Amino acid sequence: MPSRQLFPVIALAALLTLPQTSFATPSADSAQAASSADSVQARSSDSTGARSEARVRAKEVVSPKKRKNKTKAASGGKKTEKTVEVGAKAGTMPVKPEVLPLHVQVQHILIGFSGSVPGKNITRTKEEAKALAYQILERARKGEDFDELTGRYTDDSPPGIYGMSGTGVPPLEGEYPRESLVPAFGNVGFSISPGNIGIADYDPKMSPFGWHIIKRLK
Description:
By secondary structure, this protein is an alpha+beta fold. The protein has six helices and five strands, in the order αααβααββαββ.
């Protein structure tokens, strides 16, 4: 009798001493949960990598404004004059003189419109005059002979060459005091360097005769 009661106890003790992993068969729910966790971790890793890559690209991309500022800083912040008109011949675009000249010599082409130049029978409209003036300006800057353009188009007397003395500066022989001419004429003539070609737009007070295409000779 005692031997019968002892057998179940011994059998139970043997079972309890077996490794626990031999009884651990994962359920379907447990496997799915583990798979989901791995997927979330993978997506998280991919997202982190994508954000890191985006930050690197963002550092490499520089906006035009920042690039311009960096270029300016690299050049010491100095401003340089550049040809901004496509096809313009070197030296024709306006560049401000380093020192205001006391005397200048210029050649100009006057483009007037109906009623703007006394004694001239001009039939073109104001709009036509402006369009023609800017066409001539472009042609002159591209290298066409300024003398020929003057002889063909000016509503003044060719060759249209004038010497001017600066404000308050006694004129030399053959010169006009700057203040004796229309303001825009002198304003352009004294603000450009030799060889440059500028334009004085029509203005009832500053340039009442029309548009002046002006080349500084010296």
